[in-house]
Amino acid sequence: TTVHAIEKEGGIFVLHTGHGDVRARFVVNAAGVAAGTVSAMAGARAFVIRQRRGEYCLLDNKSRLLVSHVLFQTPTELGKGVLVTRTVDGNILIGPSADDQSAEMYEYKGTTAVSQSDILAKALLTIPDIPRGNIINSFAGVRAVAYTAGENGNAENPVNDFIIEEDSDVKGFFNAGGICSPGLSAAPAVAEYMLELLEKAGLDVKKRPGFIEERKGITAFNTADTKTKLQLIKDNPLYGRIVCRCETVTEAEIVQAVRSPLGALDLDGVKRRTRAGMGRCQSGFCSPRVTEILSREAHIPMTSVTKKGGASFVLDGKTRDFSGGEGDIE
Ligand SMILES: Cc1cc2nc3c(=O)[nH]c(=O)nc-3n(C[C@H](O)[C@H](O)[C@H](O)COP(=O)(O)OP(=O)(O)OC[C@H]3O[C@@H](n4cnc5c(N)ncnc54)[C@H](O)[C@@H]3O)c2cc1C
What we know:
The chain is an alpha+beta fold.
């Protein structure tokens, strides 16, 4: 839920949110591109976050042999430059681009033909024969880059570091701001450091009863050897039903993805956990089947299944409802 305002009443923070007030002794501000705004709400350190959009292109598995290492170019002022790399699953990734965008374009994460051409042109300097036709998808994100705030509140100088601290004036308020690249790799260390700061400030941290230390993975059918495949099907016949043809993902894996403790709730959730929909057709063929399985396993109507939460519904209704009769969902 979105925090709209922060007040302090008798040593306790009151966070006014879209779902009512939340009262807390300690507040950690990890609001990404909004971190400067949230810090200002609490009257804490003034800093400005600039948004630097970055786009990546993903290549089909056919190109998996193009590189076997992460290949970097010379970094620029805006970032570490365009790299050509393999993902953990073997697909080749090229990018990212780096474009500062204005505050009016808040969290704009669209992809553009211009960025794609720019990325490809730069990646071709590293590997001269990357086939454009093998780009199966592209994605964009926004880096949150911290600047000091000038007198008029505008961005002044780059901070050139993450801001991870208890505020010197507003005690109990902690910033984890300006977490741009490599924020993802650094996230576990940032969390441990923040925990130390919170404990030092007097928070009594206890492990929740029933805390699960290790995440049990889903056994992938595609990469198993033949003997294991036969055993998997024997133990669970749903391993014998291929749902995603491009990536050879079975119904058993999708069911596990939905039923696990932090289960998938939408098509993208299933995709990230199993790779169903990550192949050449980008879920063109398997999304109807995954929608059915999600609906059945999560006990929700098919018309409530989304691609990635919110209003990204996959289906509009039943075809026969539109034509006045009973029938299939489309
Ligand atoms: C193109 C690109 C390339 C990158 N490359 C790398 C890399 O190579 N290596 C690496 O380690 N990292 C990389 N990163 C960086 C990494 O992805 C980020 O550092 C990381 O995702 C930032 O995490 P965060 O939790 O700080 O912010 P976010 O993930 O943005 O989370 C902020 C959260 O705060 C919420 N929020 C905002 N405002 C409010 C409010 N008012 N109230 C309540 N909630 C609010 C948002 O909804 C969001 O959920 C890259 C990022 C991009 C965009």
